[in-house]
Amino acid sequence: MVGKLAFLVLAFFALTTVCQSTIFYPVSESHRSAALELFASSDGPFVNLESTYEALRTFEVLGIEKSADIRFSVCTSVLDTLKSETVNLKDLFHALRANGLLKCEINYEVYGGIQSKFEDSLNSASALLDFYYAIGGLVLLKDHSPELKVNIGDADKIVRSIKALSQSDGRWQLTSNKPESSFDASGIALQAIAGVVSLSTSEINHSLIAAVKTDILKLFDGIEKYDDGAYSFEEKLVDASGHQGPLAASASVVRGITAFAAVSPETLN
Ligand SMILES: *[C@@H]1O[C@H](CO)[C@@H](O)[C@H](O)[C@H]1NC(C)=O
Protein backbone atom coordinates (compact mmCIF):
# COMPACT_ATOMS: atom_id res chain seq x y z
CA MET A 1 0.00 0.00 0.00
CA VAL A 2 2.80 2.39 0.90
CA GLY A 3 4.51 1.67 -2.43
CA LYS A 4 1.28 2.35 -4.23
CA LEU A 5 0.80 5.64 -2.43
CA ALA A 6 4.34 6.70 -3.21
CA PHE A 7 3.64 5.89 -6.83
CA LEU A 8 0.46 7.92 -6.70
CA VAL A 9 2.30 10.95 -5.35
CA LEU A 10 5.08 10.56 -7.94
CA ALA A 11 2.65 10.16 -10.79
CA PHE A 12 0.68 13.10 -9.52
CA PHE A 13 3.74 15.35 -9.53
CA ALA A 14 4.76 14.08 -12.95
CA LEU A 15 1.31 15.01 -14.24
CA THR A 16 1.36 18.40 -12.56
CA THR A 17 4.77 19.08 -14.06
CA VAL A 18 3.48 18.17 -17.52
CA CYS A 19 0.61 20.62 -17.06
CA GLN A 20 2.76 23.38 -15.64
CA SER A 21 5.35 23.06 -18.38
CA THR A 22 2.53 23.53 -20.88
CA ILE A 23 1.40 26.67 -19.13
CA PHE A 24 4.85 28.21 -18.75
CA TYR A 25 6.01 27.36 -22.23
CA PRO A 26 7.35 30.60 -23.72
CA VAL A 27 4.55 32.38 -25.54
CA SER A 28 5.54 34.11 -28.74
CA GLU A 29 3.88 36.98 -30.57
CA SER A 30 2.60 34.52 -33.15
CA HIS A 31 0.72 32.60 -30.43
CA ARG A 32 -0.83 35.84 -29.29
CA SER A 33 -1.88 37.02 -32.70
CA ALA A 34 -3.27 33.57 -33.55
CA ALA A 35 -5.36 33.71 -30.39
CA LEU A 36 -6.56 37.23 -31.17
CA GLU A 37 -7.50 36.24 -34.70
CA LEU A 38 -9.45 33.28 -33.36
CA PHE A 39 -11.29 35.54 -30.97
CA ALA A 40 -12.21 37.99 -33.70
CA SER A 41 -13.65 35.45 -36.15
CA SER A 42 -17.42 35.23 -36.48
CA ASP A 43 -17.54 31.55 -35.53
CA GLY A 44 -15.11 32.33 -32.72
CA PRO A 45 -15.43 31.43 -29.07
CA PHE A 46 -18.42 33.67 -28.37
CA VAL A 47 -20.86 31.02 -29.60
CA ASN A 48 -21.48 30.03 -25.99
CA LEU A 49 -20.30 30.89 -22.51
CA GLU A 50 -18.34 27.69 -22.12
CA SER A 51 -15.99 28.45 -25.01
CA THR A 52 -15.97 32.13 -24.05
CA TYR A 53 -14.62 31.10 -20.65
CA GLU A 54 -12.02 28.81 -22.27
CA ALA A 55 -10.93 31.66 -24.56
CA LEU A 56 -10.66 34.15 -21.69
CA ARG A 57 -8.65 31.64 -19.72
CA THR A 58 -6.37 31.10 -22.73
CA PHE A 59 -5.92 34.87 -23.02
CA GLU A 60 -4.93 35.00 -19.39
CA VAL A 61 -2.40 32.19 -19.80
CA LEU A 62 -0.96 33.82 -22.93
CA GLY A 63 -0.78 37.18 -21.20
CA ILE A 64 -3.11 38.95 -23.63
CA GLU A 65 -4.98 41.98 -22.33
CA LYS A 66 -8.72 41.72 -22.69
CA SER A 67 -9.98 44.71 -24.65
CA ALA A 68 -12.82 46.92 -23.42
CA ASP A 69 -14.94 45.56 -26.30
CA ILE A 70 -14.47 41.99 -25.21
CA ARG A 71 -15.14 42.85 -21.59
CA PHE A 72 -18.31 44.74 -22.46
CA SER A 73 -19.73 42.07 -24.73
CA VAL A 74 -18.90 39.14 -22.43
CA CYS A 75 -20.17 40.96 -19.33
CA THR A 76 -23.42 41.80 -21.12
CA SER A 77 -23.87 38.16 -22.01
CA VAL A 78 -22.93 37.04 -18.47
CA LEU A 79 -25.49 39.40 -16.93
CA ASP A 80 -28.24 38.34 -19.37
CA THR A 81 -27.54 34.72 -18.52
CA LEU A 82 -27.47 35.25 -14.77
CA LYS A 83 -30.79 37.14 -14.88
CA SER A 84 -32.55 34.76 -17.22
CA GLU A 85 -35.51 32.84 -15.79
CA THR A 86 -35.10 29.90 -18.13
CA VAL A 87 -31.35 29.40 -18.06
CA ASN A 88 -29.91 25.94 -17.41
CA LEU A 89 -27.34 25.07 -14.74
CA LYS A 90 -24.55 24.58 -17.24
CA ASP A 91 -24.84 28.08 -18.72
CA LEU A 92 -25.15 29.60 -15.25
CA PHE A 93 -21.98 27.81 -14.20
CA HIS A 94 -20.00 28.99 -17.24
CA ALA A 95 -21.36 32.53 -16.86
CA LEU A 96 -20.06 32.59 -13.28
CA ARG A 97 -16.68 31.26 -14.41
CA ALA A 98 -16.36 33.96 -17.07
CA ASN A 99 -17.46 36.52 -14.49
CA GLY A 100 -14.74 35.23 -12.16
CA LEU A 101 -12.13 36.20 -14.76
CA LEU A 102 -13.65 39.54 -15.83
CA LYS A 103 -15.17 40.69 -12.53
CA CYS A 104 -18.20 42.17 -14.25
CA GLU A 105 -20.36 44.51 -12.19
CA ILE A 106 -23.24 42.44 -10.95
CA ASN A 107 -25.89 43.37 -8.47
CA TYR A 108 -25.82 41.35 -5.23
CA GLU A 109 -29.50 40.38 -5.59
CA VAL A 110 -28.78 38.62 -8.85
CA TYR A 111 -26.46 36.28 -6.98
CA GLY A 112 -29.12 35.41 -4.40
CA GLY A 113 -31.49 34.16 -7.10
CA ILE A 114 -28.80 31.99 -8.64
CA GLN A 115 -27.77 30.58 -5.29
CA SER A 116 -31.24 29.23 -4.60
CA LYS A 117 -31.43 27.79 -8.13
CA PHE A 118 -28.24 25.83 -7.52
CA GLU A 119 -29.31 24.75 -4.02
CA ASP A 120 -32.74 23.60 -5.20
CA SER A 121 -31.26 21.64 -8.07
CA LEU A 122 -29.01 19.71 -5.68
CA ASN A 123 -32.11 18.15 -4.10
CA SER A 124 -33.22 16.60 -7.36
CA ALA A 125 -29.85 15.96 -9.00
CA SER A 126 -28.94 12.45 -10.07
CA ALA A 127 -26.62 12.87 -13.06
CA LEU A 128 -22.95 13.67 -12.44
CA LEU A 129 -22.99 16.90 -14.45
CA ASP A 130 -26.02 18.20 -12.51
CA PHE A 131 -24.02 17.81 -9.30
CA TYR A 132 -20.92 19.28 -10.92
CA TYR A 133 -22.61 22.44 -12.22
CA ALA A 134 -24.66 23.07 -9.07
CA ILE A 135 -21.75 22.52 -6.67
CA GLY A 136 -19.25 24.27 -8.93
CA GLY A 137 -21.64 27.22 -9.23
CA LEU A 138 -22.02 27.47 -5.45
CA VAL A 139 -18.24 27.31 -4.99
CA LEU A 140 -17.85 30.17 -7.49
CA LEU A 141 -20.53 32.22 -5.71
CA LYS A 142 -18.81 31.61 -2.37
CA ASP A 143 -15.42 32.59 -3.85
CA HIS A 144 -16.96 35.77 -5.14
CA SER A 145 -18.90 36.61 -1.95
CA PRO A 146 -17.45 34.72 1.03
CA GLU A 147 -20.17 36.15 3.29
CA LEU A 148 -22.88 34.16 1.44
CA LYS A 149 -24.45 31.46 3.58
CA VAL A 150 -24.56 28.49 1.24
CA ASN A 151 -26.72 25.58 2.36
CA ILE A 152 -26.17 22.35 0.47
CA GLY A 153 -28.29 20.23 2.83
CA ASP A 154 -27.09 16.70 3.58
CA ALA A 155 -23.47 16.70 2.34
CA ASP A 156 -22.93 12.97 3.04
CA LYS A 157 -25.96 12.17 0.92
CA ILE A 158 -24.61 14.21 -1.99
CA VAL A 159 -21.18 12.57 -1.80
CA ARG A 160 -22.86 9.15 -1.60
CA SER A 161 -24.92 9.90 -4.73
CA ILE A 162 -21.83 11.01 -6.65
CA LYS A 163 -19.85 8.06 -5.34
CA ALA A 164 -22.61 5.69 -6.49
CA LEU A 165 -21.63 6.50 -10.10
CA SER A 166 -18.03 5.29 -9.67
CA GLN A 167 -16.92 2.00 -11.20
CA SER A 168 -14.60 -0.69 -9.87
CA ASP A 169 -11.66 0.70 -11.91
CA GLY A 170 -11.99 4.21 -10.48
CA ARG A 171 -13.64 5.62 -13.58
CA TRP A 172 -16.99 7.34 -13.26
CA GLN A 173 -20.27 7.17 -15.17
CA LEU A 174 -22.07 10.37 -16.15
CA THR A 175 -25.45 8.86 -15.29
CA SER A 176 -26.58 5.52 -13.90
CA ASN A 177 -28.48 4.64 -17.08
CA LYS A 178 -25.46 4.91 -19.37
CA PRO A 179 -22.95 2.09 -18.88
CA GLU A 180 -19.89 3.93 -20.31
CA SER A 181 -17.45 5.32 -17.79
CA SER A 182 -14.46 7.58 -18.37
CA PHE A 183 -11.42 9.24 -16.81
CA ASP A 184 -12.85 12.56 -17.82
CA ALA A 185 -15.95 11.86 -15.71
CA SER A 186 -13.69 10.83 -12.79
CA GLY A 187 -12.08 14.27 -12.84
CA ILE A 188 -15.52 15.89 -12.87
CA ALA A 189 -16.68 13.70 -9.97
CA LEU A 190 -13.59 14.43 -7.87
CA GLN A 191 -13.99 18.17 -8.42
CA ALA A 192 -17.65 17.92 -7.40
CA ILE A 193 -16.81 15.93 -4.25
CA ALA A 194 -14.07 18.42 -3.36
CA GLY A 195 -16.64 21.20 -3.78
CA VAL A 196 -19.06 19.45 -1.40
CA VAL A 197 -16.29 19.06 1.20
CA SER A 198 -15.40 22.75 0.95
CA LEU A 199 -19.04 23.93 1.12
CA SER A 200 -20.18 21.59 3.88
CA THR A 201 -20.43 23.05 7.36
CA SER A 202 -20.04 19.61 8.93
CA GLU A 203 -17.37 17.00 8.38
CA ILE A 204 -18.00 14.41 5.71
CA ASN A 205 -18.21 10.76 6.85
CA HIS A 206 -14.63 9.49 6.98
CA SER A 207 -15.39 6.13 5.40
CA LEU A 208 -16.86 7.96 2.40
CA ILE A 209 -13.71 10.04 2.00
CA ALA A 210 -11.58 6.90 2.39
CA ALA A 211 -13.63 5.24 -0.36
CA VAL A 212 -13.00 8.17 -2.69
CA LYS A 213 -9.29 7.93 -1.93
CA THR A 214 -9.39 4.24 -2.91
CA ASP A 215 -11.05 5.24 -6.19
CA ILE A 216 -8.18 7.62 -6.89
CA LEU A 217 -5.65 4.84 -6.30
CA LYS A 218 -7.56 2.57 -8.68
CA LEU A 219 -7.49 5.30 -11.31
CA PHE A 220 -3.71 5.17 -11.29
CA ASP A 221 -3.79 1.48 -12.20
CA GLY A 222 -5.15 2.63 -15.55
CA ILE A 223 -2.46 5.20 -16.25
CA GLU A 224 -0.33 4.99 -19.41
CA LYS A 225 3.36 5.71 -19.01
CA TYR A 226 5.55 6.84 -21.90
CA ASP A 227 9.30 6.45 -22.45
CA ASP A 228 9.86 10.17 -22.00
CA GLY A 229 8.46 9.94 -18.48
CA ALA A 230 5.08 11.46 -19.30
CA TYR A 231 1.91 9.94 -17.87
CA SER A 232 -1.51 10.04 -19.39
CA PHE A 233 -5.01 8.74 -18.83
CA GLU A 234 -6.34 7.34 -22.08
CA GLU A 235 -9.98 6.53 -22.52
CA LYS A 236 -10.57 2.96 -23.61
CA LEU A 237 -13.85 3.92 -25.13
CA VAL A 238 -13.51 5.69 -28.45
CA ASP A 239 -16.83 7.01 -29.57
CA ALA A 240 -16.83 9.53 -32.36
CA SER A 241 -19.08 12.07 -30.70
CA GLY A 242 -17.82 13.93 -27.70
CA HIS A 243 -14.76 11.76 -27.23
CA GLN A 244 -12.18 13.50 -25.06
CA GLY A 245 -8.55 12.95 -26.01
CA PRO A 246 -5.90 11.80 -23.53
CA LEU A 247 -4.82 15.37 -22.84
CA ALA A 248 -8.32 16.48 -21.88
CA ALA A 249 -8.91 13.31 -19.85
CA SER A 250 -5.58 13.67 -18.03
CA ALA A 251 -6.18 17.36 -17.40
CA SER A 252 -9.60 16.53 -15.98
CA VAL A 253 -8.17 13.88 -13.64
CA VAL A 254 -5.39 16.21 -12.48
CA ARG A 255 -7.90 19.00 -11.80
CA GLY A 256 -10.01 16.52 -9.83
CA ILE A 257 -7.15 15.15 -7.75
CA THR A 258 -5.73 18.62 -7.12
CA ALA A 259 -9.13 19.85 -5.94
CA PHE A 260 -9.64 16.79 -3.75
CA ALA A 261 -6.12 17.01 -2.28
CA ALA A 262 -6.66 20.69 -1.51
CA VAL A 263 -9.73 20.04 0.65
CA SER A 264 -8.56 16.82 2.31
CA PRO A 265 -4.76 17.06 2.38
CA GLU A 266 -4.18 14.40 5.01
CA THR A 267 -5.93 11.76 2.93
CA LEU A 268 -3.43 11.80 0.07
CA ASN A 269 -0.27 11.59 2.13
C1 LIG B 1 -20.30 6.49 7.73
O1 LIG B 1 -20.59 5.63 6.65
C2 LIG B 1 -20.49 4.25 6.98
C3 LIG B 1 -20.60 3.44 5.71
O2 LIG B 1 -21.40 4.02 4.75
C4 LIG B 1 -21.55 3.92 8.03
O3 LIG B 1 -21.46 2.55 8.37
C5 LIG B 1 -21.30 4.78 9.26
O4 LIG B 1 -22.31 4.57 10.21
C6 LIG B 1 -21.24 6.26 8.88
N1 LIG B 1 -20.80 7.02 10.04
C7 LIG B 1 -21.45 8.08 10.49
C8 LIG B 1 -20.84 8.78 11.65
O5 LIG B 1 -22.49 8.47 9.99
Automatic annotation (TrEMBL):
Q: Which GO biological process categories is it annotated with?
A: protein N-linked glycosylation
What InterPro entries does its record include?
Ribophorin_II_N, Swp1
Where does this protein act, in terms of pathway?
Protein modification; protein glycosylation
Keywords carried by this UniProt record: Endoplasmic reticulum, Signal
> Is Transit peptide included in the keywords of this UniProt record?
no
Q: Domain of life of the organism in this record?
A: Eukaryota
Function according to Swiss-Prot or TrEMBL: Subunit of the oligosaccharyl transferase (OST) complex that catalyzes the initial transfer of a defined glycan (Glc(3)Man(9)GlcNAc(2) in eukaryotes) from the lipid carrier dolichol-pyrophosphate to an asparagine residue within an Asn-X-Ser/Thr consensus motif in nascent polypeptide chains, the first step in protein N-glycosylation. N-glycosylation occurs cotranslationally and the complex associates with the Sec61 complex at the channel-forming translocon complex that mediates protein translocation across the endoplasmic reticulum (ER). All subunits are required for a maximal enzyme activity.
Q: What is this protein called?
A: Dolichyl-diphosphooligosaccharide--protein glycosyltransferase subunit 2
